[in-house]
Amino acid sequence: MTARAQIGVTGLAVMGRNLARNFARHGYTVAVHNRSYGKTQSLMEEAGDEGDFVPSESMADFVASLERPRKVVIMVKAGAATDAVIDELLPLLEDGDIVVDAGNAHFPDTIRREEALSARGLHFVGTGVSGGEEGALLGPSIMPGGTRESYESLGPILEAVSAKVDGTPCCTYVGPNGAGHFVKMVHNGIEYADMQLIAEAYDLLRAGLGASAAEIGEIFAAWNEGDLESFLIEITADVLRHVDAETGQAFVDIVLDQAEQKGTGRWTVQNGLDLGVPITGIAEATFARALSGGVPQREAGRRALPANAEPLQVADRDAFVEDVRQALYASKVVAYSQGFDQIAAASAEHGWDIDRGAMARIWRGGCIIRARFLNRITEAYERDPQLPLLLSDEYFTDAVGNGLSAWRRVVARAASAGIPAPAFSSSLAYYDGVRAERLPAALIQAQRDFFGAHTYRRTDREGTFHTLWSGDRSEQEA
Ligand code: NBP
């Protein structure tokens, strides 16, 4: 076996197969391997003429076909399968080789694997890859972690196959060990929030306008020409205009209204709780999916709970559509602002030194949340790399400020009409919370001190205090 392949992919289901084809189409010689040989054979039969592939049936031959330092991309089902593949690879690799996990690993697993492999003299690169199977083939957004040294040789290959926006690759070095997979996790969390916000906008428009799904689809198509331009708005317009061939009904009307999740939303929310970062948009989106899937609860609720709501009466249709558009944009800014706060907090906690502006830049193409508006985020972090709150950047202060009355109207009307808009309303509550001069947290501190002697600080002088609530109610310095 001649060691002539520049990169190898093991795991040739939809993602690995397409990523391997993408490498080959860019002129790289690609070693390919899969646990069961059938997938390798079908790749060679169906796409073998797209470039220079070196297929192997055994892992030993696969590794032997790679140039040193070897670059092995693992694209298998995240979890135990990744560990199984790493265990099989380890005895075959040598100092300085680079193992890339491009699956959707949970970032603590990546930290663990990186530690184990670096102790063996290997580089372990946990990388986020977004864009689904089409992205993998035509250019995904790629978020690699690991050592800077590994990025020097691996980075150019990943940048070559990534999506490009204005000639800039949607791939950059993210940070050490788990940073790449962490950023991919938050990307997916933001994707949850974005989808939920779009769904709420759709629901309000449909109720308010009494319009068909296709008519709402036209509104989304028009929105895609402006600030909201994004992949998710574009596909929403497409989906809403799609007709079910069997029944002739709007496709969206024949789909069961119980949303599923694979777990990245949950991981993002769990991590938000661990770090104490209020990612309320992502959390509401994740819980809204859970609510939709709670069949017995929904049946009981439908039977027992009165609405006492006023129907949504829309006098000026265009004005209502514009209000919903502005509410959607403002809520979306909040969701992203929260996600970038989470990245900042994790970066500080783990010493990753993640450049948030660069993350927005590599999400502009290839991935599910690709959007025009990400340029604005990059610019905001270029103006101030340490920006404590994305919302406080002048561009977003203006953009959200201009739509604020519309946002309040939409949330108020949704509430009086009994239409659930959890992401819209929690984003507005966050906005009002984070801008408040004074919060009722003062009362919470006082309650905590009352029942648990948890102490409090005062507004008028330094120190920590406790009041003797069950005694003479005098104050002591704690
Ligand atoms: P799957 O997640 O469906 O995994 C199938 C692959 O894993 C097959 O190649 C299978 O080999 C291999 N595999 C399994 Br299962 N257990 C194994 C083991 N113990 N040892 C070796 N190989 C094993 O594939 P996918 O949908 O292409 O996704 C690959 C990765 O990319 C996942 O981590 C996924 O989360 C991530 N991802 C997917 C998407 C997407 O849109 N699908 C998007 C972004 C990221 P076999 O053929 O022998 O069974």
Automatic annotation (TrEMBL):
GO biological process: D-gluconate metabolic process; pentose-phosphate shunt
Enzyme type, top EC level: oxidoreductase
Protein EC: 1.1.1.44
Xref: SUPFAM superfamilies: 6-phosphogluconate dehydrogenase C-terminal domain-like, NAD(P)-binding Rossmann-fold domains
Pathway(s) it belongs to: Carbohydrate degradation; pentose phosphate pathway; D-ribulose 5-phosphate from D-glucose 6-phosphate (oxidative stage): step 3/3
Molecular function (Gene Ontology), one example: NADP binding
Keyword Mitochondrion among record annotations: no
Positions with a binding annotation for substrate: N104, S130, G131, G132, H187, N188, Y192, K262, R289, R448, H454
Active site per database record: K184 (proton acceptor), E191 (proton donor)
Domain of life: Bacteria
Reactions catalysed, as given in the entry: 6-phospho-D-gluconate + NADP(+) = D-ribulose 5-phosphate + CO2 + NADPH
Residues the record lists as binding NADP(+): G11, L12, A13, V14, M15, G16, N34, R35, S36, V76, K77, A78, N104
Keyword Cell division tagged: no
InterPro entries named in the record: 6-PGluconate_DH-like_C_sf, 6PGD_dom2, 6PGDH_C, 6PGDH_Gnd/GntZ, 6PGDH_NADP-bd, 6PGdom_BS, NAD(P)-bd_dom_sf, Pgluconate_DH
Role according to the record: Catalyzes the oxidative decarboxylation of 6-phosphogluconate to ribulose 5-phosphate and CO(2), with concomitant reduction of NADP to NADPH.
PANTHER family, sorted: 6-PHOSPHOGLUCONATE DEHYDROGENASE (PTHR11811)
Name used for this protein in its record: 6-phosphogluconate dehydrogenase, decarboxylating
Protein's organism: Isoptericola sediminis
Lineage per the UniProt record: Bacteria, Bacillati, Actinomycetota, Actinomycetes, Micrococcales
